Amino acid sequence: MRMIDALRDAEQHWFAKLEEDTLYLHTRALITAFDAYMQRALHLDISSRIPPRVLPVSTMPPGDFDFLVDREYKLIAELLKPGNRKRDEARARTRSLLAMEALVADEVEISEKDINRIEKAVRDGSALQAVFPRKASATC
Fold first, then answer.
1. What percent of the chain is modeled with pLDDT above 70?
2. Which domain holds residue 40?
3. What is the mean pLDDT of residues 105-120?
4. Which pLDDT band holds residue 94 (cuts at 50, 70, 90)?
5. Are 3 and 30 contacting, i.e. CB atoms less than 8 angstroms apart?
6. 3-state helix, strand, coil in the chain (%, to 5)
7. At how many degrees (to 10) do helices 20-42 and 2-13 cross?
8. What is the pLDDT of residue 106?
9. Separation of alpha carbons 58 and 39, rounded Å
10. Nearest 10 degrees: CA dihedral of 121, 124, 128, 130?
């Protein structure tokens, strides 16, 4: 739930870019968590209240979370290469990756200082784990 909230905040306050399969993955995870809560607390399953056809559907089903994050990081690095003139898109995608840290941190706030730090690290060729150290916690 924190992840979806952080992604919404990033989109509301900044320009963020999130791929369809990544959004699907997070939306589906939220519904799964809500279903588990309903079963535990109310002894109801979500499919008894919402028809399955309205649950998230995507023409691009998600892959592995680590694969999605790695792919996004590589794309950011590619967008920041000299001559590409895609800095704004790279920064938007960076905001989305920062918002994903909501899985492991209660109050995630995305600042320009964070974006600048990450942009510099990516340009310097830093590894994903060095730039996003909380990512390892998010996949456990």
1. 69
2. 2-138
3. 79
4. confident
5. yes
6. 65, 0, 35
7. 140
8. 62
9. 25
10. -60
User: What does the pLDDT read at residue 78?
Assistant: 92
Place of tokens 């060095």: 130
pLDDT digits (tens, 9 = 90+) for 43-80: 988 877 777 666 665 555 566 777 778 888 899 999 99
For 116, the token pair is: 């600048």
Q: Residue 2 has which token pair?
A: 């924190």
For 106, list phi and psi in degrees, rounded to 5.
-65, -55
Task: Judge contact between 92 and 16, C-beta under 8 A.
Answer: yes
Give the torsion sign (CA, 125, 130, 136, 137): negative
Tokens of 70: 């790695």
Question: How many structural domains compose the chain?
Answer: 1
Asked if pLDDT for residue 135 goes beyond 70, the answer is no
Q: How far is the C-alpha of 44 from the C-alpha of 31, rounded, in Å?
A: 14
DSSP string over 36-92: HHHHHHHS--GGGTS-GGGS---SS----HHHHHHHHHHHHHHHTSTT---HHHHHH
